[in-house]
User: Which sequence fits this backbone?
């Protein structure tokens, strides 16, 4: 099945990030990889980070103009190492996509303290470290985009810790937009709904396709998203086309939280 988004893009946006430097966390697969590819295709040099080095190397080969910096965003030393590589390039940061996240599915009864803390370490602390440590490198006019989720405003069973972590990310986007706007830095969030990424396999294993089909059946769109559709939204928030957008939360959810 060919969707409209696969052939609608023209040449008008090509090169809109020419000479820019972008940082994408969680860039090995899914939404992060799709966004990194688009940023590179439109002229940016992209620094990508992820915890699995072999997957990260494959991602860089697919992205093109990119630098891989393996690491865990919840570990301060790893984030420092990422930005040291960026600093060495000497061009600052124009686009920061704080995207890394995890989503172990567990009901309240099943949710262990260890799993709960791991979700908040990556999704909340990791987002904090990613943006906080980028501050000295953010160029005037830079765009910071945080990955939220429809779960941050909903109440999906088995996703309480994940939803709470994404609600925190939404709060970050609001406060940081107010704090950084004065230095010419825009902060916004993008909140995907169901997207066909490896997170489904990690969360549901052999039931992943069944679960996706069940969710898709309840959406006005009638399907889950392709990562490129989320990348479109991220690039909009990263570009001058969203120059008057501050602290927003852009839902890209097929209508899940809207209808």
Assistant:
């Amino acid at each position: 099945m060919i969707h409209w988004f696969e052939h609608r893009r023209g040449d008008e946006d090509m090169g809109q990030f020419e000479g820019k430097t972008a940082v994408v966390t969680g860039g090995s697969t899914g939404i992060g990889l799709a966004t990194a590819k688009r940023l590179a295709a439109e002229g940016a040099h992209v620094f990508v980070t992820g915890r699995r080095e072999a997957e990260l190397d494959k991602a860089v080969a697919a992205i093109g103009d990119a630098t891989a910096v393996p690491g865990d965003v919840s570990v301060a030393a790893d984030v420092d190492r990422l930005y040291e590589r960026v600093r060495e390039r000497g061009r600052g940061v124009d686009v920061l996509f704080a995207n890394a996240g995890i989503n172990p599915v567990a009901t309240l009864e099943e949710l262990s303290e260890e799993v709960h803390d791991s979700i908040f370490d990556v999704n909340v602390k990791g987002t904090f470290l990613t943006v906080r440590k980028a501050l000295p490198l953010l160029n005037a006019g830079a765009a910071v985009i945080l990955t939220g989720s429809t779960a941050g405003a909903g109440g999906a069973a088995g996703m309480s810790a994940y939803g709470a972590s994404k609600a925190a990310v939404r709060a970050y986007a609001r406060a940081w937009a107010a704090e950084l706007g004065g230095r010419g830095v825009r902060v916004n969030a993008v909140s995907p709904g169901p997207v066909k990424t490896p997170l489904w396999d990690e969360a549901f294993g052999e039931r992943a396709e069944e679960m996706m089909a069940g969710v898709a059946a309840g959406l006005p769109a009638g399907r889950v998203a392709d990562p490129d559709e989320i990348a479109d939204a991220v690039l909009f928030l990263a570009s001058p086309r969203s120059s008057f957008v501050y602290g927003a939360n852009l839902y890209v959810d097929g209508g899940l939280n809207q209808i």
Notes: The domain at 15-251 is CATH 3.40.50.720 (Rossmann fold). The mean pLDDT is 92. The longest strand covers residues 138-147. The chain has eight helices and seven strands.
